[in-house]
Methyltransferase family protein (Kribbella voronezhensis), 385 residues
Amino acid sequence: MTLTLLLDPIGSTVLAEACSAYAPGGELKLVEQLRRRYDAAVVTAAVTQASLRHRAVAKFGAEDAARMYFTPDGLEQATRSTVGTHRAARIAATLPGASVVDLGCGIGGDLISAARAGLRVTGVERDPETAAAARANLAALGLAGEVVVGDAEAQDVTQYEVVFADPARRADGRRVFDHNAYSPPWSFISELLERTACVKVAPGIPHDAVPAGVEAEWVSDAGEVKEAALWSGKLYGGTARRATLLPGGATVAAAPEAVEGPVGRYIYEPDGAVVRAGLVTAVAEAVGGWLLDLRIAYVTADALVATPLASVYEVIEELPYREKALRAWVRAQGIGTLEIKKRGVDVDPAVLRKRLAPKGAASATLIVTRIGRDAVAYSCRRIPA
Ligand SMILES: C[S@@+](CC[C@H](N)C(=O)[O-])C[C@H]1O[C@@H](n2cnc3c(N)ncnc32)[C@H](O)[C@@H]1O
């Protein structure tokens, strides 16, 4: 196990040196320098770890990343701390100080968030190296908790108040999108949802795969949809679907009936979590608007209402959705920076942008969508958040 090489006094010294001298792209030179004084195996492990810590800053922040231990897969699959903290806070708010077993805890991203929220954590991980990283991470961050090497499916979970699982969504190094291909398998995961549980799944989970009496919460962070969390038992919030937008924490759960109407002065583009949760009409309600088309996730309104749930664009004019007309518009307006948004039409924004050949000092947003059977385009101005 390469990780254990870094935990003894010599390993820690080499790791500290590797981390302080680390610069992306300079790995080979760093290995060469450290090799003059230290054993090859420990140097390779230290430089690899330094590079993983550098990459981990985006997920865990500089302060924690500098103290944590990773495996390449473990870092790739770990939950970013913003999202883990949000989930852990919800568990702790409902069941303060509860005992939580994390089945398939990886390097412990979620375990750390749960321990910090005051939950009593036990991690189960089948890969010994990954489990060692999780254990080392709790210790390095001064958190209590236990990590055991084992098969999630063989655990007796009855002694814990909450079961948490973030099943592996990778096979042979590739991302798995079908929930039936998770490990531990969906058959096992869906049984956990008969207890008080929280299960993290990919945001593409079909709505009809979520068992009755379980809440699915789609979560985005800085506008990017990260996951859906399934909540059951005492953690069920009494609603089938929810969207939560981090870092602010705005959350919606009810969708009023959809109303369709003509384009207003503004177009609102709902956050991806709201769209995935099927709660677009909540945005319409929040801004006093309606949908451009019942099947498409664009809201329109005459009022400019600040909402965390959507990006807002002021409509300048409606344009014919024909390449020649659009190219003439780009040229006439001197548009050099062209943002293209689309929903409901089969167009690749990057390809269309290239074909429209933007050149000039002006900037604009083009929203391409479908109303009924017709494709339409709107020239817009993005309203800053
Ligand atoms: C997506 S990762 C967990 C990431 C973790 N939540 C975090 O934030 O760091 C899933 C983990 O489950 C482990 N795993 C998969 N099947 C398992 C099983 N049957 N028993 C125990 N662990 C398993 C994998 O080795 C992997 O480390």
Q: What stands out?
A: The two ends are 48 Å apart (CA to CA). The first helix runs from residue 2 to 5. The CA atoms of residues 115 and 143 lie 6 Å apart.
